[in-house]
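dumping these here so i dont lose them again. two proteins, back to back, each one seq then structure tokens. dont judge the mess
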Amino acid sequence: MASDGSAVASSRRVGIGIAGGLAVLLAAGGAVALAGDDGRRVFPRASYDPLRGSAAAEEWVAHGDHAAVVRVTRETAGEPDPEEDYIPRRVTATVTRVVWSRPGAPRLPEEITLRVNGWYTTLWGGREEATREGAPRLEPGHTYLVGLVGLGEGVELIGDDAALPYDAGTFGRGEFEGRGVGPDAYRRAVRGLPRDAVAKFAVSETYRPRTLPDVRRLLEHTSPRNVYRQAALNGLGTDVNVDRRPDEHADEGVGDLPGRIRRTVSTLDPGTGYFLSVACSGRDKKITVGLTVNGETVTRRLPCAQGGTGGELMAVERPHGEVTYEISSTGSGVGAVAWNISPAPVRPGRDGPGPDGAF
């Protein structure tokens, strides 16, 4: 039986051995982290709050400038975020084929750089791949069909859902959620996407596999108008008079751009103040609104954006007789505009909004 002294010495040797092994493990882990990844952090689809929809064909056409086949050639890590232990990532890709382009879209360069999901650092100095359920990460050595939108001098993905694996010229084969996948597994993985999703179309079971010309025809025959209309409607306020109840509109509607929309309303209470609320979504940057109340016309240029704008308000103060307004596009871009007329909130001592629309 060992003495107390030898037992202590033995425990010290074991402790030194563990410490030495841990140091080697950390060093090796650091080397592995530099060379590759040691796991994944997969975020569920329910946690995804996209800036814009990117799965459906009408969303590719509404928001995108190009659909293209790209092969990722390299990736670059950015500066880590010290608060979240997140390392951003960019990939460089070669454009091998442009499948579809929006009329008037700027030419797509032969090589592009995209912001994509990066890594999270681990407690032991390694990395976990950041990826989202149901979407590729875009990794070097793999090929994808992607939907792209212009961003200043560069481009970006329309959204996480605007990327399909396309290794060996086959939809659904390649990298997906940071792992290799085949068409059958990919088909099962995208079942939860909208019925008209590009991914579901590309891998749908038909008498022959879908091809790039099939996707091109799909996009060419898809209209973005429903996306623009819904975005414009979503931009309108629902409680302009701030009484905590849905507004009752004296007039409301949605119309397509380019074009000119003229409305006349004759049922307004002359003792009540109103607001004309206008929201726009589409390819043009501005729309023009002319509002005529009591024989006086006010004209304003209001913003328009692909993802929609918040409702812009124009005061309709104590109308006597008909109120007329005309909404027109300033360019030829496709879009939609939505409008309504609602009672304005009443400031104590006033019967309606002031001339500048203030309460």
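---- next one ----
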Amino acid sequence: MKKIDNIASVNGRLLLHEVYHKLKFERQRNSLSVLLTLWRICTVETEINQYIDEDEVIILHKLGFWRGTLLWIEEIVSRYYFSTINSLVYFGAAVLLVLIGLNNFTDKVDSSVVVYGLAFEASMLLLMFFIMLFTPNDDIFLLKNYEKEDDLQKELLEEIGEISRDFALTSAQLEKSISFFETIIDKQNSLLEIISKISQTNIEAVNPNPKMIEIMQETNISIAKFNENLKTINSTLEEVKSYEIQAIVKKEIELFFTDRFSNNSHNK
């Protein structure tokens, strides 16, 4: 339930204009019916739920006949029917000029008709005076626009705050992702270095460099020389062994014959 202190308050005036638009444009009521309904709302009525499509609205305090009528002139008649009354004033002035002209140049128009025309024009001018006297200011609409602008600014600030928070979270996640990718890149570089070393080792194993080939050739030559030296040493050793064997055999033979000779001499 929405409660309004009185219809002359800012919220009450805004509600009054809302009721006018509902009756005039959505429900397509005629101008006289709209004026009478709004006059009753301004003066005596406190419940206006039948005129709007919102929750229950209650006006706590009535304005009464005079204050309600002045508010009705200010907010409804002056705002929405000023051009109509202004056109009636010009129409009355035109009729009055015609009546005065006919009265001066012909006898068909009585002076009383001219007086009635003057009274009608005077009443129209008096009505115009009251309408212009109670010309409303646009403070309530400016206030409404300010409230809308404030709401828009609040919504924009909230959206900017949400965007800032999302951006901060995204930046933090991006920094984490960047550090993670940097770690992966470092590990990848290390793996590439290891693979490069392994590849270089394999290349050197399959295709040795010239220095290694020279060293291997020199080693083979040294091994060949060493083999020749071993053969020479072996042949020398064999010769030495044969000489030693011959010497031993000679010595044994000499010992054998020496023993035989010595035995024969003893027997004799």
